[in-house]
Write a structure and sequence with these properties.
Blueprint: E1 2-5, H1 10-21, E2 29-32, H2 42-45, E3 53-56, E4 59-61, H3 64-72, H4 85-114, H5 122-141, H6 152-167, H7 173-176, H8 178-187, H9 191-195
Parallel strand pairs: 1-2
Antiparallel strand pairs: 1-3, 3-4
């Protein structure tokens, strides 16, 4: 299999962590790919021209939750996607919350780096920041749920927080979310997390 990714993408990082945690990393060739380079061939594999994309024997898979669930079918260990019941819905809820936080953070990043300063829309940026703040508040309130078995939800949460550290370190989310910060500090010691850290 071949994974088209950017080392700076939190969504691609989620896939890379899932691959390591399921023992599949040696079956996947990771190929750094730019969404801005037409020669990369990304749009031919994903018509949305977004990463990550996993090339498989039956065609490309996207986006990150689909890729992660597919990888979860390829190993015999504990599953990242619980099969049924409250554990499954809790994991998927955490995944949705983490992905939503990442979406808002990426939109701010694009606004600040791709749009000229005189055209940046501060009220729109503030709306995205508000989404991030409320997401962090919910994560803090429910942080005890993260202490259970490793799931796609805990991986997603760790990647979302890692992206804030990468791009918005000056926001200081740990100071206002101590339980979440304590959990993240423990998760950050996992070899899969360390191996996928991107340098700004």
């Amino acid at each position: 299999m071949k994974l088209l990714y950017s080392p700076f993408s939190p969504f691609a990082r989620k896939v890379r962590i899932a691959a390591i945690e399921t023992g599949l990393q040696d079956r996947i060739e990771a190929v750094p790919t730019s969404t801005e380079d037409p020669a990369s061939g990304l749009s031919a594999r994903n018509p949305l021209n977004k990463i990550p994309v996993l090339e498989t024997e039956f065609g490309p898979l996207y986006d990150s939750p689909v890729i992660c669930e597919y990888l979860d079918t390829l190993h015999d260990g504990p599953k990242l996607f619980p099969a049924s019941g409250p554990a499954r819905w809790q994991a998927l809820r955490w995944l949705a919350l983490a992905d939503g936080l990442q979406d808002a953070a990426l939109l701010i990043r694009y606004e600040l780096t791709l749009r000229p300063a005189e055209k940046q829309h501060e009220p729109w940026i503030e709306r995205q920041k508000a989404k991030i703040r409320t997401a962090l508040d919910r994560m803090e309130a429910d942080a005890a749920e993260l202490d259970g078995p490793l799931t796609i939800g805990t991986i997603g949460a760790a990647c979302a927080l890692g992206y804030l550290d990468l791009r918005f370190a000056d926001w200081g989310w740990r100071g206002t979310h101590p339980r979440l910060a304590a959990w993240h500090a423990g998760f950050a010691e996992r070899p899969s997390y360390i191996a996928t850290i991107a340098q700004a």
